Model the fold of this input.
Amino acid sequence: MLKKILISLLVCLNFAFAMSSSEIDQFISQNSRDFEILTKEPTRVYASNPTLLYLLYALAPEKISGVNFEWNDYERPYLKDYVLTQPVVGGFFGQGKIPNVEMLLRLDPELILVNASSKNVKKMTEIFGSIKKPMLYLSGTSLEDYLKSWQILGKVLNREQRAKELIDYAQNSINLSGKINEYLKTNNIKKLRIYYAQGSDGLSTECEGSQHAILIPLSGAEVVHKCEKESSAYGHVKVSFEQVLKYQPDMILVYERDFYDKIYSDPKWALLDAVKNKKVYYIPREPFSWFDRPPSFMRFLGIKWLINLAYPEAFKFDIESEAREFYKLFLGLELNDEHIGKILGKSK
Amino acid sequence: MSKKSFLLLLSLLILFIFGSLLLGKYGFSASEYIRYFVAVLKGENLEDYKIIHTLVTEIRLPRIIACLLIGASLAISGAAYQAMFVNPLVSPSILGVLSGAGFGAALGMFFRLNEVLIQLSTFVFGFLAVIFALLISALYSRSGSVIVLVLGGVISGSLFTSLLSVLKYAADPNDTLPNITYFLMGSLGFASKSFMELSILPMFIGVLLLAFSGKYLNALSLGEEEAKSLGINVFKVKIFVILVATFVSALSVTIAGIIGWIGLITPHIARFVYGADNRSVLTASALIGAIFLLFCDSFSRLIFTFEIPIGIVTSLFGIPMFILVLRRAKKSF
Done:
């Protein structure tokens, strides 16, 4: 009974953020360009950066037209054939991989999704402006952005029901973040200190407050590396091993498989309590990382995964069945045990 | 170079070695150090000193040895090249070895090879780049004239730099690209114990060989005709210097990525202090290079919570020093 009440309460909460139809229209009118050309439901949509592409993939993969870069080998087995055969057009996401306009014209997308922060980037408006296609500015930085973007996109693409399903799940995950922090407070539990190891030597990390490590505070834990000033958006701050040793983190999250494979056998890393206590975890990344790099909707599962690792007693998740449910809902995949083992890094 | 000034440099080096052995982010008190070193000297069981022991043997010592070898290698190759090309603007990268090695490393990372294969590919491509430069110059000048050699190096260097850009462009921006970028900026943090054990001896021999070639380089710096009239086989000396210098510089890249500036400035400092005789310039360059890199590395380790890539530190300190010694260098080269 109590569970039911809680669930219905949560459902109410879900729509606390929800925008009304007129609010959505207003958002679109303020955050779009040449939108009036769009007279019917668009069937070909080009997302101009990976975050938006993933967002679109979860909502309406059949509408994707052109991708930003070649899919990686570890992504391919999980993606829909239709998306795998889409041509690589490029996009706006740093490293100068700007889109090929003629390629884009050939694809003839009916809608272009653009990152809200590049709204006033001159090069971008020039490139997309020249081909006169409806453009929609969406944001995918914070987890809340996803909810909003899905709702707007759901309406534009006529996938409102699908958007609602995704948003429900996502909102649930976000709520968990509040609940775990509440739980820590009421039970007076000390925050777990986490070191995020990136790079082939494990010595690239993120500062506290970095967008790339956002799941750590959201799951009630703390980033060990504090920086004098806020780190750049790009992250990947280099630290020395002695610095890490000084931090003595409670837990280590590892981005790269190669490093994860050798951390337990390296005599210097063995000095860390986290390594001694076997508190080193490989971040699942198939098809997209559960944590970050690339930032994607997979983080809604990542929250549960991380809370479960940091405070296993708090919600008692069975991460395997959670993963099954998530992959089915977001990616339309039925995972078998072998897949799960591979994704969770239990087997190679 | 007089015995006295040699000893002075050597003792300065030893001072720096001890300094960086004791300094680090993870602090120990002086008494702890003393107890540890006493225990080491007495051959006691080191179980009680596990952290300090691992820190010293696994992190600081390999790094210091790497610094010494890399600093010495790059500086002495720079000095040898400068003497050979009779040009003060030459650095070890003149024949494209650094670009080639950088490309080799990036290639290994791109295909996600294991560590040993990456290092092998780094080394092999460093050499290939130089061979390519030599081939180009051989096409146009049989005697290996200096200017054609330099042009060959320019072509080879640019070729591998552009190939490297292609790789960077195609690399996965989430993991491979940052790895490549950090590698290219250079860091002693890459120095792993296992690989160091492998390259210590060859690098040391390479540096020694170069150190003893001062007499021949003196003759070369008089100009090719004069060297020939002194009975020196110019071609053989050149090939010898190129091979050994390439060998040690390529090895230095496999250990710590690309570290610029040392090879260019240290010979100038050496000449500033010890005059233009290559017999002293070579040895002094090696020692000063080692000291300079140790200093820069300690700086990059200690100053911030994060580590600055060593390539940045060497140029930050190197450039003002270069400007200072430039005036004198112009006169006495």
